Every structure is written in structure tokens, then in C-alpha cells.
Amino acid sequence: MTSHRILRKAISHVAWSLPTRDRLARRALRCVLFHHIWPAEDELTAGLRVTLHPEEFADRLRFLGRHYDLLTLSELLSGSPLPDRPLLVTIDDTYRSVVMTAAPVARELKVPLVCFVNSSLIDNARLSFDNLAAYVANTQGIGLIRRAADDASIRDLQDLFERYLPALTMSQRRAFEQRLQESAGSDGAHLASAAQLYLSTAELRSLAESGVEIGNHTATHVHCRALDQSGIMAEVIEAGRLLETYTGKPVRSLSLPYGARRDATPLLLSVLRDEGYQAVFLVEAGVNRAIPDLWAIERVAMRAGPDRETWFDLEIKPRWEEWRRPA
Question: What are phi and psi of 5, to 5 degrees?
Fold first, then answer.
């Protein structure tokens, strides 16, 4: 067990026992993030830290329902006063497990969902770069990724996504993805078709018809800081319009892939406003204010663990991250 994990367990145990703990949850918006709700990882997802067992997912939703006032996106965007302990539940990355597992559980527990979708992955037409990198790392080793990247310092998948990938231009990223497929002898489209990992058009439409809010997660899951005007139109605006065509419903929000505030560029926000978007979601585990900034909504990624550790992730960790963040 890492020192960070030990500290998390210790602090959460003490804080959870305080009679005043619920005061921390009042007024300010909390927003949580899930990805792939499935019994086990496989070669396309292992190492990405996105998989949560369905039973654990149900447990987390029950906890959230007991301790928070669950919102729909419409309620958040309405401008009306928020309830005492407002919380929004979101899911990223287009995984088919949303329709197979997550949405039925959420429906049973009466938990509203916002599902952010990558338009190019629908119908398993291609493989997300993240899943391609996981497949290569899990079947052939991280060394092949280092060679394709020409960077021997890449430690693991998290280092690839957090340090190496954000520094690439769009053309460099496409070239790296192509080299990775060639080096691995792995065609992303073939892998996607065989795995059926992502939502189909019909499944996406059924989610929207069932009341799940569909949001934009870009076309191909890219770092938006690398996008110029034409890139924003292709990766964000056209992707959102395609989702609207599939679902027959407006797309009002964007979840930034990888969740960094730096990807919410002034140009991107300007284009989004002109297009009629109303909200942008991050994943930096920061604190949302009593009146949240709808163009930088902080989310906390959910993981397995006892209730007290979920509470720690929602109430203690964001304040710690906010304090550590440079002014």
C-alpha cells in the first residue's frame, strides 16, 4: 500500500467520525465522474484506472443518494438556487457498459446521469487512443510505446497521458498513433470492431430517450489545448452536431478529455459560447463555489472503497488540491 493510500485511509477514518462532517457538504456543487462500469479490466482497459465493478458502482450511487441532493444538468443550468447539498453524476468515454450496466443501475436508484460521448467511437468505427495504448502496453509491453514515442523516459500509461501526450501537436499525435499501430501490428478499427467496447448509434439514442443527458467529449478524445479554430470545429463543434443528429436532442455541455483546466482555452470557450453551449467540465478535483463557474465545473473521479473514503475524495481532497494549486 502506498503512503498516499495510507494517508487517505487515516484522514478519512478520523474525519468521517466527526459529528460536524456534514457541514462541509453544504451549498457548493459536487460533481463526480465514472467511466467504465464492468466486472473486470481487460487488455484494452487495464492500466487506465477507468474500470469500476457494477456492485461498487451501485454502492457509490447509494452513498451519494444518502448524503447529497442529486441534480439533473437542466436543474444545474436553470439558474435557480441549488439545493443544500447539490451533486451531479457524470460518465465519460463512450463505453458500452453505460447502456449495459450503469444506466440500468442508475435508473433503479433514481440517479440522473450525464453521459459524455466521443462521436468517432460510436458504432465501434475506431479505437480510442487510450484503449490502443492500453492494448499495446498490456500485450507487448511499455517498451514498444517508448520506441514509438522515441522517449525512453515514459514510465507507464499514466506518465504517457499526463506528460508526453499533452505536449504533442495534433499532427504529432496522429503520427504517434500511426507509429504505435504499425509497431504493434494492431489495427485500431479491427480491434474496436472485435471488442464492441463502445456504444452503437441505437444504444446512444436509447440512452437519450430514457432521460440520460448526452454531452460532448470531442470526436477523438484529444487535448483541446492543441486545437486551432479548424481543429475546434472538427473535434468539438461538428462532433456535438453529430451527437444531436443521432439523439434528436441538444448537446449543451462539453467534458474536456483528460480534464485539465489548461485545455479550456479562450478560443475554445469563445467558440462554445457562440455555438450555444452552456457548461464545460474538468477533472482536477478542485472546489466548485456556491455559485459554480459553469465554464469550469470541477469533478472528482470515483473509485472503489468504503463510504468514508468516498467522502474524503469529495470533501477533503478537493480543498487540499485547491490549497496546493498555484495562484
Answer: -65, -40
Locate 67 and state its grid cell.
448524503
Distance CA 243, CA 218 (A): 10
Beta bridge partners of 255: 281
Are 142 and 206 within one domain?
no
Look up the CATH number of the domain holding residue 263. 3.20.20.370
- 111 half-sphere exposure, CB direction, 13 A CA radius: 29
Do 11 and 133 reside in the same domain of the chain? no
Please, what sign has the CA dihedral across residues 159, 175, 224, 122? Answer: negative
Residue 327 lies in a domain: no
Secondary structure class of 256 (helix, strand, coil)? coil
Task: Please answer whether residues 103 and 212 qualify as being in contact, where contact means their C-beta atoms are separated by less than 8 angstroms.
Answer: yes
Q: Does this model's pTM top 0.85?
A: yes
What is the number of domains present in the chain? Answer: 2
Query: What cell numbers appear for 75 in the block?
Result: 436543474
The CB density around residue 10, as the number of other CB atoms within 10 Å, is 11
Would residue 141 be called left, alpha or beta, if left means φ above 0 and alpha means ψ between -120 and 50 degrees? left
Residues 77 and 140 in one domain: no
Task: Report the chain's mean pLDDT, rounded to a whole number.
Answer: 92
Q: pLDDT of 9-28, one tens digit each? A: 666 656 666 666 666 656 78
C-alpha 30/C-alpha 58 separation (Å) is 18
Report CA Rg, the chain.
19
Co-location of 165 and 211 in the same domain:
no
Q: Are residues 29 and 99 in the same domain?
A: yes
150-200: pLDDT as tens digits: 999 999 999 999 999 999 999 999 999 999 999 888 788 999 999 999 999
* Residue 326 binned pLDDT confidence (cut-offs 50, 70, 90): low
